[in-house]
# Entry
Amino acid sequence: MMLPCVKETDKMDDIDAIFSSLLGEMDNLSQSLMPAEVDPDSQTHSTFSIGFTDLNESLYELEEHDLDALVADLGSKSTTSDGRLPADQQTSSCAAASAMAREPEPAAARPRPSTSTESSEGLQMSKPQTKAEKIKLALEKLKEAKVRKLIVKVLMSDGSSKTLMVDERQTVREVLDTLFEKTHCDRSIDWSLCETNPELQIERGFEDHEHLVEPLSAWTRVSENKIYFVSKPQKYVMFTDPQLFYMWKKKKACLSGINEQAKQLLLKEHFGGSTLIVPDLEGKLYLKEDGKKLWKPLYFMLRASGIYYVPKGKTKAVSDLVCFLHFEKVNIYTTNNYKQKYRAPTNFCFMLKHPCIQKESHYIKLLCCDDEHTLLLWMNAIRIAKYGTVLFKNYQAAMKRASGSQPLHSAAHKDRYNSPKPDPAPPKTTNVEDYPHEPPPDFIPPPPPPPPPGQTHV
# Structure
């Protein structure tokens, strides 16, 4: 009769164990997402600048006109927010104003009207003149601003850098347009903004539709992450060479001979309809085991909902597939030298993780490919599955900008070196048709007049 009670006790013990395990997992995840402890004063400044030691340094790096624009923009927003009154206060203010209008005010009590000269002098006195004064004013306004702004240092491939002011409403595409104007480079679709994480030895190219401030806000104060403005020829390879992803089972020799018309048909078929068709990529990848430098080969399959794998001893049937992960909360990163760091089978690895995880964690998933071409297929096919038609719209917008506009000096440079040179002028020949006013060659001119008296004819 006591047997049911024993079973109930066992069930309760199992529930307690599961609950304790769940709490432990939540603690581990919170520690992975928790930023390092920093000084509160420095943390306040770190929310306004990326890539600098403090906010003052970032403001000094801004160009003069950018700093003026920042101060003016922040000033207009603070004036608007300060000048807006609630509805009941506006009603009472209007009632008081109408009452005052009905009662005549004594002339002595009326304020003396200010002249335009005095107002302009007061405006000049209040307007900051030096860069230090402008920076001081910008610091005050940044703390009051409701729209979050970041001053970001962007590194170039030649070692130089550009300092930009970015607010939370700007997309990566808009930041790229600003960099095009500042660097005077061509507007190729290959240009990208990339983040690097030296601690994890990873890199990711921001997508054009992303709001730049959002991923940068996940960086910790002590991180050494950086942003680069670089050209990535494979950024939109899934649209310039769609046959690589939708005909990947064919031999490479057959894929290289596909003409432009066939590529456009592939794009229309897979991206032009009401639903996106994700490449049905599958194959052997190596999965890094948690906490170990061991890599286990598994057969993975890409689907629109995520990545699945075939357990050992099972078939590729849908009922046997196990979900590896979904794409909603993770980003994909390329890795650097993981063959040495984690004893990976090759250096062609990629990482899948939540953007807030900035250090090593067992919530990070690492996969390794046999060769570079396989890495290219998986990286970009996962981007298609994650972003869908938004990625195709990014490509179309980038193509439109690249074909519709280019810097003036770039156009002049192109015209100077690429325009056809005029043919050299042929040697001059004497033709009667070219000189109708001149006599024919066989015309004998009359003898010269005789010299004046006293001169000898030579």
